[in-house]
Amino acid sequence: MEKIIIRQISVGPLEVLTYLVACPRTKEGVIIDPGGEAERISAMAGEEGVKVKYILNTHGHADHVLANERLKTLFKAQTCMHEDDDRFFAREEIREASAKEFGLLPPEPVDIRLHHGQVLEVGDLEIEVIHTPGHTPGSVCFLVRGNLFTGDTLFVGDVGRTDLAGASLETLLKSLEERLLPLPKETVVWPGHDYGETPASTIAREMEENPYVTDFILDLP
Length: 221
Prior knowledge:
Blueprint: E1 5-11, E2 16-22, E3 28-32, H1 38-48, E4 51-56, H2 68-75, E5 78-82, H3 83-88, H4 92-102, E6 112-114, E7 119-122, E8 125-131, E9 140-144, E10 147-151, E11 154-155, E12 158-159, H5 169-180, E13 188-191, E14 201-202, H6 203-209, H7 211-214
Parallel strand pairs: 3-4, 4-5, 5-6, 10-13
Antiparallel strand pairs: 1-2, 2-3, 7-8, 8-9, 9-10, 11-12, 13-14
């Protein structure tokens, strides 16, 4: 099986890791977490000859959605977010809180509301939506052919903040334990920010080295 196309770049004021993921045969693909610099993201897709079908958001924080509307126009693609975050960030009090937390405008309503277990077909690829609340109520990870795009749910050696509106450490840890750790250990973790020693990891490595996993979930010595 031909290897899927994955490109990772850091964009925007908060250095979000944005991804291009595409089917090698059909060159149909998605953008995950467009954190700004829409023209640079568009150029990346052009370099690979990819036609973007969906713009996927792992969650609704402003730094991960900055280029949604511009790319929607450029690619004529549909924006997608979990239903819980699309509703959460539509609330006026949450929009105000989010704008204060990030100094950026929160997301506009998306075209497609996602739900846990949903599968998006992109060329020959099947992209599974895994709901992992904790960082936000509607945080998700996207799983495709052994690659897990975790947004701010799981970083290399760390997890996303839980001191923001709608966040909960207890809920996040439950998401890790029930939804992510059962995945095959060789699953590649592609995080939403480059906060670790490397820009990517694996489930196995996080089970051995991530203190939120070893100390809070596995209770390793």
